[in-house]
Design brief:
little secondary structure; about 260 residues
Length: about 260
């Protein structure tokens, strides 16, 4: 009976190891440029700079600490990927799918992200400085303390997201949709939010100094404790807005 048991055990171990061996082989082929499909691969710290990875399948892959400097990831599938501390400086990610990705400390400096989806993505202190983010989807994303300075942010859809502590200084954010989002303690200094939708959003204690909020929808939004000095609220929709302790455009505190 012992040889039979030994054979069965060997077969069981081989069966258990086969997926890991297959993934390692797939990762090697991907790194060698033989394929652009590597879902769930472990590519921690890999240098994938200047690569043509348009349409690549990296869904669920571990790309933490990887380098994608100037790589083309247009239309790539990065859904559920781990991109913690990954560097995507100047990468092309137009129409890429980064839904549910992990993004802590990831860098998208000067990246092209037009039409990309970050729905449900999670991460703190993500660097989006100078990124092109027109028409990006950020539905339900949590990007606390993210840096968006000098990014192109027009037409972004970000309902029910969390941008607490984020910096949107001096951004052109026309037609942005922040419906129901949490944006507490954020910096909107001198930003253009004209015709933006902030219906039901929580902007408590945010800095909106000199912000342009012309025709913005602030209905039922929480602007308590915000600084609105020199902000332009012409034609803004303010039905049900909470202004408690807000410092208003004329420099006085809100009086009900």
């Amino acid at each position: 009976m012992r040889p039979v048991v030994g054979t069965a055990l060997a077969l069981l171990l081989a069966t258990l190891l086969m997926p890991a061996v297959a993934q390692a082989s797939e990762a090697s082929a991907f790194l060698a440029g033989e394929t652009t499909s590597c879902p769930r691969c472990a590519l921690v710290g890999a240098d994938l700079s200047d690569r043509n990875l348009a349409g690549a399948d990296l869904s669920g892959a571990d790309l933490s600490g990887a380098f994608f400097f100037q790589s083309d990831l247009s239309g790539a599938n990065l859904k559920g990927a781990n991109l913690e501390a990954a560097d995507l400086t100047a990468a092309k990610l137009g129409n890429a799918d980064l839904a549910d990705a992990r993004l802590d400390n990831a860098v998208f400096f000067r990246a092209t992200l037009s039409g990309a989806s970050f729905a449900g993505a999670r991460g703190e202190s993500v660097n989006f400085r100078r990124a092109i983010m027109t028409n990006v989807r950020l539905d339900g994303a949590s990007l606390r303390f993210a840096q968006f300075e000098d990014a192109r942010f027009g037409g972004v859809k970000a309902p029910n997201a969390d941008f607490s502590g984020a910096s949107f200084r001096q951004l052109n954010m026309q037609r942005v949709d922040f419906t129901g989002s949490t944006i507490e303690g954020a910096d909107f200094t001198a930003s253009n939010l004209e015709a933006g939708i902030l219906r039901g959003a929580n902007l408590a204690h945010s800095d909106l100094f000199g912000a342009r909020l012309i025709a913005a929808d602030l209905s039922n939004a929480n602007l308590s404790g915000t600084r609105l000095v020199s902000a332009n609220l012409r034609n803004a929709i303010t039905e049900g807005t909470n202004w408690q302790d807000a410092l208003m455009p004329d420099g006085s505190y809100y009086k009900p």
